[in-house]
């Protein structure tokens, strides 16, 4: 087996801790790249994505970039989509990214949008 990078080890460690305390709640998974930020609410038991939002959505694309404001917009959108799907409580999966900057902005906006974690 190939040796895992530091980021992959951190991701695995975070996800293992999440699954231990999830208690059947869906997971709000966040991924950020240099240009975009993505958020999904995933039901791991069923293996399905319940809601998703990103800066690549058609009505957002072009006017936002890789900023904290864009991340906050994605947080509000994923919270609205989750509420529409009947989800209010989730477990936050930062995916190995530090809880700072864009990731924190997305989480705060999702909380304001009605998600509990």
Automatic annotation (TrEMBL):
What's its job?
This is one of the proteins that bind and probably mediate the attachment of the 5S RNA into the large ribosomal subunit, where it forms part of the central protuberance.
Its Gene Ontology cellular component terms are: cytosolic large ribosomal subunit
CDD domains from the UniProt entry: Ribosomal_L18_L5e (cd00432)
Q: Pfam families of this UniProt entry?
A: Ribosomal_L18p
Which of UniProt's keywords are assigned here? Ribonucleoprotein, Ribosomal protein, RNA-binding, rRNA-binding
Q: How does it assemble?
A: Part of the 50S ribosomal subunit; part of the 5S rRNA/L5/L18/L25 subcomplex. Contacts the 5S and 23S rRNAs.
Q: Keyword Ribosomal protein on this protein?
A: yes
Per the UniProt entry, what species is this protein from, by scientific name?
Sphingobium nicotianae
Q: What is this protein's name?
A: Large ribosomal subunit protein uL18
């Amino acid at each position: 087996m190939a040796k895992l990078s530091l980021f992959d080890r951190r991701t695995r460690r975070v996800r293992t801790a999440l699954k231990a305390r999830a208690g059947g709640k869906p997971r709000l998974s966040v991924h950020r790249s240099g240009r975009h930020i993505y958020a999904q609410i995933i039901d791991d038991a069923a293996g399905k994505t319940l809601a998703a939002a990103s800066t690549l959505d058609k009505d957002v694309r072009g006017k936002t970039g890789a900023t904290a404001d864009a991340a906050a917009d994605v947080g509000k959108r994923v919270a609205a989509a989750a509420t529409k799907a009947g989800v209010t409580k989730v477990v936050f999966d930062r995916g190995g990214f530090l809880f700072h900057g864009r990731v924190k902005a997305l989480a705060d906006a999702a909380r304001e949008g009605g998600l509990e974690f």
